[in-house]
Amino acid sequence: MRRAPPDPELLALNTATVREKWTLRETIEGCARHRIRGIAPWRDALSQMGVKEAAKMIRGSGLSVSALCGAGMFPAPDSNARRAAIDEVRRAIDEAATLEAGCLALVPGGLPEESKDLAGTREMLRDGIGEVLEQARSAGVPLAIEPQHPMHCASRGCVDTLAQALDLCDELDRGGAALGVAVDVYHVWWDPQLKAQIERAGEKRLLAFQISDWLLASRDMNADRGMMGDGVIDLPLVRSWMEECGYRGFHEVEILSAGNWWRRDPNEVLATCRVRHQTAC
Amino acid sequence: MRRAPPDPELLALNTATVREKWTLRETIEGCARHRIRGIAPWRDALSQMGVKEAAKMIRGSGLSVSALCGAGMFPAPDSNARRAAIDEVRRAIDEAATLEAGCLALVPGGLPEESKDLAGTREMLRDGIGEVLEQARSAGVPLAIEPQHPMHCASRGCVDTLAQALDLCDELDRGGAALGVAVDVYHVWWDPQLKAQIERAGEKRLLAFQISDWLLASRDMNADRGMMGDGVIDLPLVRSWMEECGYRGFHEVEILSAGNWWRRDPNEVLATCRVRHQTAC
């Protein structure tokens, strides 16, 4: 089935897509130049110019922040380290508020060093989110749990499915709008429950939509994502599921690609994103 | 919690673990020498000596066949290719019967060339299993659907979770014992539903248990499995879930390891399997 192309105004860029070539300043300028209206900075990029300066420049360039990325990672080997992780997320919530970000995306975190206790790791994550949730609510920054691909379970992804993320939302934020999910197609495209869980999430919990593609020939687990249209994910179909639930937010391109897109001129990358958003999403 | 080590008589070897160094004949002799009672041959290894000769030698060496592997892959681009795939599985059922195998393990298969239709691919799998199920029942060879790790979804794993495999069992074989699942820890260890789905499967549908380990530093999706104890999977815990459901079958070592175990002397590999089965499983 051929679907109508998406609204070009909804294209957003995750800064990780061009992180090898451009500073945050260059990325903001690049988005403005390529008429990309949304930006999702990673916290490490943010630190280059400071949060207030970044917020000012992003607003001044007519951009909106779809999400702040790079926070989370709650599980840790001992209570001091877990406390430090929670404090770091608290700082990220403040940053997201300054940026007027649509949400703070949370990478769940993986097994603490030497641990094989996956159930206990998942409890650390739950408890960590529980600790910061009130601050996020007060700050008006919804937290978006981002399920990771199961191949990242050990290293950073103790939440691996939308169902699991939504179970956490229901447990910690019953009926609320302080906690939701980030749907990154690269992480969740394989899930036989994907459609059902997007429907379960509904508009209120669908906080972010990240796009890229899964390359059929991919062997590398870490930074080998494809440009939209170059892989096997039926992006228009997944977008239609999001939209049928009322999602009207950005379509944020996040392509980690050490062998290909990170090496290219970011202007070419952004121009390609713009075209592929219309032809392959 | 420290659990009692497993019964050493339950150790089995999947021939893929030593496939780079040993023929099937050498593997059978090696198992006998190392007092490993179970063997799970891949069909390509079987073709080296022929099925009848292999069956005779395996029985003569005092071994049992825990599973026959390397069948499945139902989805295909057109009806002729799908028919050929089904015929191939029919041949595999006959071979499994000759070998008196505990089950025929089915690798589901992935997206047909040029396809992004994951739902349609899953229907091809379901229809394919539906076509061969009666033959399997008559031959006394239960079919074990082996959910693949989601990172293999596109290439061979359109069944990615135990829940999905068990939904297929319930749909195609309601109340029966002709269809079940193979639980390979490498593929399913991350699943937040793992315990619940093993319980759901129960003794009747738990047809095989494959062991190896997930290496924390792994980057390669294809052949970088760890020896039991070298990774992050809590193997004694998963085994306890299997045993609590009444599973009494083999613990079949399947380690695809291009960079490490495939390079070593298989006698060392088998000796290590024997030790680790007692200390890490």
Question: Can you put this structure into words, describing what you see?
Answer:
The structure is a homodimer. The first copy, chain A, is an alpha/beta fold and about 280 residues long. Chain A contains ten helices and nine strands. Chain A has helices spanning about 25-35, 45, 50-60, 80-100, 120-140, 160-170, 185-190, 195-205, 235-245, 265-280; strands at about 10-15, 40, 65, 70, 105, 145, 180-185, 205-210, 250-255. In chain A, strands 3-2-1-9-8-7-6-5-4 form a nine-stranded parallel β-sheet. Chain A is globular, with a radius of gyration of 18 Å. The relative contact order of chain A is 0.15. The model of chain A has no long low-confidence stretch (mean pLDDT about 95). The interface of A and B includes residues 153 and 216 of A.
Q: What form of chain A results from the Cα inertia axes? A: globular
Strand content of chain A: 5-15%
Number of helices of chain A: 10
Strand and helix order of chain A: EHEHHEEHEHEHEHHEHEH
Quaternary state of this entry equals homodimer
- By DSSP, the count of extended strands of chain A is 9
Straight-line N-to-C gap of chain A: 13 Å
Unreliable sequence segments of chain A: none
What is the C-alpha radius of gyration of chain A, as a whole number of Å?
A: 18 Å
Please state the average pLDDT score of chain A. Answer: 97
Helix and strand composition category of chain A: alpha/beta
Order of strands across the widest beta sheet of chain A? 3-2-1-9-8-7-6-5-4
Largest interface (C-beta under 8 Å): A-B, 33 and 32 residues
- Helix proportion of chain A: 40-55%
